[in-house]
Amino acid sequence: MSLVLRGGTVVDSQGERVLDVEIGDDGRISSVGNDLSGDINLDASGCVVAPGFVDLHVHLREPGQEDAETIQTGSRGGALGGYTALVAMPNTEPVTDCAAVVEQVRNLGAAALCEIVPTAAMTVGRLGVDMAPMGELVDMGVGIFTDDGTGVQDPRLMRRIMEYSTGLTARLGRPVVLAQHCEVSALSDGGYMHEGDWSSRLGIPGQPAEAEELMVMRDIALVRLTGAHMHFQHLSTASSVAMVRGAKAAGLPVTAEATTHHFSLTDAACASYDPVFKVHPPLRTDDDVAAVRKGLADGTIDAIATDHAPHTDHSKEQSFDSAPPGMLGLETAFSLALEESGLDLPDILALMSWRPAAIAGVGDRHGTPVVAGNHANLCVIDPDETWTVSGRAMASPSSNTPYEGRTLRGRVRHTISAGEPVVVDGEARR
Question: What domains can you pick out in the chain, each with its CATH number?
Answer without folding.
Answer: 3-48+374-428 (2.30.40.10), 52-360 (3.20.20.140)
